[in-house]
Design goal:
globular, mainly alpha, 18 helices
Length: 395
């Protein structure tokens, strides 16, 4: 698909998402109204609650620091200087989010041109564009994937360190990166890559960690101490009456099982996959095991799914998955409306069921991609190769 067509689709999708948010702008993101109309966003919510309306330094307060890594915190801080209300702060930030959305789509086009159009037309993607600042990390992550598979390791490592300093999720991509370089007998490149990522992360984080350590640590502390949170399998099980103790251990155990399974699958491969072909399975596994599975996580997975697709016959699975994401997108806001005093809303039990439907949609998509890969390879190939058939060179 031509670049100008994708640009038009991105603009159209961005305008639809803006229209979805317009009701909340008109009502000042009042509660529970913002949940009833499914137009909640962290952008205006944190503008006043984190002192951004007063241009407060993000990590000054020990109890109320910004609960994000430093690059996201700096974006939140810098954009606050052009704002005089939650609405103007929201509009300033979404201007940059639209640019990042476009950059993400164009990178996907470089990797998987035949399916790039799916990113701007994915309904759950459109619905979630302005919930949070995730696109800052997503765009940089996609650049890191693209450059890594083009063997531009220094560029990839530098921007990977930046991405991890924006949102922490991309750190898990170091697992397939390590495998790919080890499989290609590039141990020195692997050590250099990890060193550059680590040094980049340290260079970005050290000034904050040294000057305001408690505020800087708040993001990591909250993630370690949080209980079962929205969208997670853990909260769904609790809402269905299953009492869970030692949740941190259970979550870590499930994460280790998921990552160990991915590692086993990687070692079973007879060929070296591309990072683009394995990134989805890694991050999806992490999200499914996590104590929180936020609605905007679909922004991460959609471009990763698209670069993993290899056959048009699998598009039905993509749309089934998108449908479960849209269902959950409505469900989470209606449930939050219910718990914040709305006359009508979604009770805990049906919300838990729809959370599991969403999780099932992700697992179903993974299974369909696996089946397609099995059919695509010759009968002598190993069964476990099927998960990574998408690993083909791209320009």
């Amino acid at each position: 698909m031509k670049v100008r067509t994708l640009v038009v689709l991105v603009i159209f999708a961005s305008l639809i998402s803006f229209g979805k948010s317009s009701h909340c702008q008109n009502t000042g993101w009042a509660t529970p109204d913002q949940y009833i109309h499914a137009c909640y966003s962290d952008l205006p919510a944190l503008y006043a609650s984190r002192g951004l309306d007063k241009n407060a330094w993000p990590f000054t307060s020990n109890e109320n620091s910004v609960e994000y890594p430093v690059v996201t915190a700096m974006v939140m801080y810098v954009t606050s200087f052009g704002a005089n209300s939650p609405a103007t702060y929201f509009n300033i930030n979404i201007f940059f989010l639209v640019l990042l959305f476009l950059a993400t789509v164009l990178i996907v086009r470089k990797i998987r041109p035949e399916f790039a159009y799916l990113v701007p037309v994915a309904p759950a993607m459109i619905a979630s564009l302005y919930i949070n600042w995730d696109l800052w990390a997503i765009a940089t992550m996609m650049f890191a994937i693209y450059w890594f598979d083009r063997k531009q390791y220094l560029h990839s490592a530098l921007i990977m360190g930046l991405s991890i300093s924006t949102k922490f999720l991309p750190v898990f991509l170091l697992i397939p990166i390590a495998f790919i370089l080890w499989r290609d007998a590039k141990v020195k490149e692997l050590l250099k890559y990890v060193a550059v990522v680590a040094l980049t992360w340290i260079a970005i984080n050290a000034p904050f960690a040294l000057t305001t350590p408690t505020g800087w640590w708040r993001f990591y502390k909250l993630n370690l101490e949080r209980g079962a949170d929205w969208g997670s399998i853990w909260l769904a099980l609790e809402q269905l009456g299953l009492s869970l103790k030692n949740l941190n251990y259970l979550s870590i155990l499930l994460l280790l099982i998921a990552l160990t399974t991915v590692a086993i699958l990687l070692f079973e491969l007879k060929y070296t996959p591309t990072l683009a072909s394995v990134a989805f399975i890694v991050l999806a596994s992490v999200m499914l095991a996590s104590k929180v599975y936020s609605p905007q996580y679909v922004l991460w997975l959609t471009p990763l799914v698209v670069i993993a697709l290899t056959n048009k016959k699998d598009l039905h699975a993509f749309w089934v998955w998108q449908a479960t994401e849209v269902i959950y997108h409505v469900a989470i806001w209606q449930h939050l409306a219910s718990v914040t005093g709305a006359k009508f809303g979604l009770a805990a039990t049906p919300f838990a069921i729809l959370t599991l439907v969403r999780i099932g949609g992700t697992i179903y998509l993974m299974a369909v991609l696996a089946r397609r890969a099995l059919q695509a390879r010759n009968k002598h190939s190993q069964l476990l190769d099927l998960l990574f058939e998408a690993g083909k060179p791209y320009p």
